[in-house]
């Protein structure tokens, strides 16, 4: 194993410019041979809405998240099913990009902690980072509109990943806290709240769509084994 000592600190919101420069460089870096594909690496993570649908726990979810009262779990789950097409690609993907996985030094921002390294869409890390930025008051809509990785990206693909990310944070936040990290559910709930608030303004149609998904999408939603989620 090879380690490098870095002199620096974890960046904060005031350091957003060098952070976004590093994110742009990451998203433009081709993934080296041998890394798994993002759609395989995260195949068991972006199933939150489908897990909720399979567990018939929508009532408990809307009790914990009243902002979802006007949404349809079937529509959200069907949209989530499309995440693999949206996120596929050949760029290097970190997979868990947050400010606390970066070090700001004299030569700029370095990205650390790479257990989920894979290849996928170059904008994936930025889009999944936005809930944590929104929690700190960043205008993430403007950020995506102006950032070089996302300003020309397909809007529907971006929204699909945001929906899938919301399903991940909502579903995980309702699970019992793990003994080794009891605060993680509160963190996930805060990110879910921030992301749902943003979706409500960015794509209000998605959170109010009560139409039935296509038969093919409906079969995809309910072919999973039920997962029992408990609201706390």
UniProtKB/TrEMBL annotation:
User: Superkingdom of this entry's organism?
Assistant: Bacteria
Q: Where is the Aminoglycoside phosphotransferase domain?
A: 36-130
Q: Which Pfam families does the entry link to?
A: APH
InterPro entries the record matches? Aminoglycoside_PTrfase (IPR002575), Kinase-like_dom_sf (IPR011009)
Q: What is the official name of this protein in its record? A: Phosphotransferase
